[in-house]
Amino acid sequence: MSYIRRQALRIGAFILLLIAYLTNSILLEFATKYAGKNVPLADQFIGAMLISAAAILILYTWLYQRQLKRYNPRRLGHWAFNRHRIGQLLMFFMLMLAVQVGWSQLIIHHLLPIPSNQSALNGQIRQLPFWNMAYGVAIAPVFEEYLFRGFFFNFFFSKNSLTSNVLGVLVSGLIFGYLHTMSFSVTTLFYASLGWVLAGAYLYFKDIRYSIALHFLNNLWAVI
Asked: If you ran DSSP here, which 8-state letter would residue 224 be given?
């Protein structure tokens, strides 16, 4: 199989996995839309979202583990949580927090606009508080880490070399930022910066559970 064909298949597979996640999030958007108008219909969308989220999680986990069994030069896997590693994880979180605080100061001083993604999320939380907060804090981090760290590196930057690691971090962060803004703007750099920290944590800890935990802490901080 030629290199171009392999890459095309990988891009197609990544897009399909991304579509599965986006479709799941759309179900929550519909539930939010009908929350104050048609409660039974909103409940049905929530039920569909939860069932499909469970199915997607099973698929992501199975495929990710299958990929690592086939080719895993970085020795990615499950590494025990201990006091030292938790301390290091908190240092990564402090770095993400510094990015958020610095960006918020630029917004407060009217040097940058409020991210439209955050404004939309705030509106959804007001309409359907529990499920939007639960999704943003507990479900989205898992799916996004599998997509933008796990699958992305396995598909496109699987070699354990300095060039592959650096390019993988940069590109995954940019894609992460773009998909949060759906445009190229200065706000894209904000989300890309968070993506770069998450990608760095993924490669540093060699365990996707750590980047998921870091993403969870970041999103939790954003909604409290």
From this structure: -
